[in-house]
């Protein structure tokens, strides 16, 4: 890709390796607000047409089920974010010195053609060309940089499959710190608008420490790189578990070097990234465990114990939204995050610590690089505990009244 911050123009060539899961006369990619100028399938010209936020590709010949094929799409335009009334703004946002692409559940389709659904994970390599003096940070392991004619090309490679919403790019003026942690690259990017001693920088400096602690709870770190990116932009009042390199809005650090949010997003590297959702209704498996990781980290740091964190929210919680199927408008509600974490703790009490903490490691190990459902997790928990846990999950995930505890 090539991006010009001055004009806001993005041009790209996407090469997609795919396999047909049915006989195909045509197929679609998600591609929002950008126009394809040329499409080939296995080197042969294909026709393409826009259909809303989708690109419909008709190859010269049909593709049989099970056949591997390669699509190359040349495209360009001024990318825009998607504004979903129920889910908020996600995708490409232009800034004074560059841009960033970020968002959940929709983001990737605003900057490259993709099957923008968490069940279809893929590896990703990014080559982003920007004006000299501008940084471009992405997922995974950094590659060589090349400079020519006033432009610099940054390269990044994520060799473990990722859900499309976990892909990101941040372009602008950043201080990029590259080091090594446990033999893997650690890349931290802090906006130049924030001082080197800022709360954000101090929190990011603990990334390796937090990841190491979470390894003791969840098993080996699942990716080939570490890091974090901070955005100094009032439009980003959240953090996102972008694979191998979470992105944090600076709003989290205005009151101090808050490490709990770092624990949350790094926990997602196991629960949500390496082990991803088959459908969005199962999002409590991401957010419940990441919130529980915050509670574990607090206890580890000498703050509230996990039980105290549970008691604090259990006493006066609104139980009307079931986290096991919250609906689109409540996909990011307290029911998913906090009641999800309470569900995890109720499970711990039912299983006992030995079986529970063994499950915390076996679940991401057994499902690494895959996608899962709530039913998959219930089955794993019952196998690990040797107990019928149907009533527990029915109350905590699907009930609309206070669960017994």
Give the uncertain stretches in residue-range form.
none
Largest sheet: 5 strands, antiparallel
CATH class identity of the domain at 117-267: Alpha Beta
Q: Span from first to last CA?
A: 53 Å
Mean residue pLDDT: 96
Strand order, sheet with most strands? 1-2-8-4-5
Architecture of the domain at 117-267, according to CATH?
Answer: 2-Layer Sandwich
CATH topology of the domain at 117-267: Zincin-like
Amount of helix: 25-40%
Gyration radius from CA atoms, angstroms: 22 Å
What proportion strand? Answer: 25-35%
**Tally of strands:** 24
Q: Total number of helical segments?
A: 9
Overall 3D geometry? Answer: globular
Q: Pairing-aware structural class of the strands and helices?
A: alpha+beta
GO biological process, one term: proteolysis
Organism: Actinoplanes friuliensis DSM 7358
EC number: 3.4.11.2
Family: Belongs to the peptidase M1 family.
Could you explain the architecture of this structure?
With 405 residues, the chain is an alpha+beta fold. Among the domains are: 117-267, 2-Layer Sandwich (Zincin-like), CATH 3.30.2010; 276-398, Orthogonal Bundle (Neutral Protease, domain 2). It has nine helices and 24 strands. The protein has helices spanning 199-204, 207-218, 260-267, 284-300, 306-314, 334-351, 353-366, 374-385, 390-398; strands spanning 2-4, 9-19, 27-30, 35-41, 44-45, 47-51, 54-58, 68-77, 81-84, 88-94, 99-102, 122-131, 135-137, 141-142, 146-148, 151-162, 169-172, 174-181, 184-191, 226-231, 239-240, 247-249, 276-277, 371-372. A five-stranded antiparallel β-sheet has the order 1-2-8-4-5, with no helix packed on it. A five-stranded antiparallel β-sheet has the order 9-10-11-17-13, with no helix packed on it. A five-stranded mixed β-sheet has the order 18-19-20-22-21. It is globular. The chain starts with a strand and ends in a 7-residue tail after the last helix.
């Amino acid at each position: 890709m090539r991006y010009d911050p001055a004009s806001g123009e993005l041009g790209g060539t996407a090469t997609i390796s795919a396999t047909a899961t049915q006989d195909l006369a045509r197929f679609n990619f998600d591609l929002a607000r950008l126009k394809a100028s040329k499409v080939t399938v296995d080197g042969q010209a294909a026709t393409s047409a826009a259909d809303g936020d989708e690109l419909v590709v008709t190859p010269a010949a049909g593709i049989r089920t099970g056949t591997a094929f390669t699509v190359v799409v040349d495209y360009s335009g001024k990318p825009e974010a998607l504004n979903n009334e129920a889910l908020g703004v996600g995708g490409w946002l232009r800034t004074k010195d560059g841009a960033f692409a970020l968002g959940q559940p929709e983001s990737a389709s605003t900057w490259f053609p993709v099957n923008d659904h968490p069940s279809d994970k893929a590896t990703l390599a990014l080559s982003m060309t920007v004006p000299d003096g501008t940084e471009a940070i992405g997922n995974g392991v950094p590659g060589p940089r090349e400079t020519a004619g006033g432009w610099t090309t940054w390269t990044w490679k994520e060799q473990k499959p990722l859900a499309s919403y976990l892909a990101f790019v941040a372009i602008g003026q950043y201080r990029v710190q590259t080091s090594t942690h446990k033999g893997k690259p650690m890349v931290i990017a802090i906006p130049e608008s924030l001082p080197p001693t800022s709360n954000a920088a101090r929190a990011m400096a603990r990334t390796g420490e937090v990841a190491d602690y979470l390894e003791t709870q969840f098993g080996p770190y699942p990716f080939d790189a570490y890091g974090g990116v901070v955005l100094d932009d009032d439009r980003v009042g959240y953090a996102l578990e972008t694979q191998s390199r979470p992105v944090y809005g600076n709003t989290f650090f205005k009151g101090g070097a808050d490490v709990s949010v770092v624990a949350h997003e790094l926990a997602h590297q196991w629960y949500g990234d390496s082990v991803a959702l088959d459908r969005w209704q199962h999002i409590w498996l991401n957010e419940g465990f990441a919130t529980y990781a915050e509670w574990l980290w607090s206890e580890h740091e000498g703050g509230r114990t996990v039980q105290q964190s549970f008691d604090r929210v259990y006493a006066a919680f609104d139980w009307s939204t079931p986290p096991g199927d919250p609906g689109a408008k409540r996909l990011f509600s307290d029911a998913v995050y906090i009641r999800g974490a309470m569900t995890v703790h109720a499970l711990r009490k039912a299983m006992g610590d030995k079986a529970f903490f063994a499950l915390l490691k076996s679940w991401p190990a057994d499902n690494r690089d895959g996608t899962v459902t709530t039913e998959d997790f219930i089955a794993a928990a019952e196998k690990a505990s040797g107990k019928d846990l149907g009533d527990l999950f029915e109350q905590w995930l699907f009930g609309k009244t206070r669960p017994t505890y």
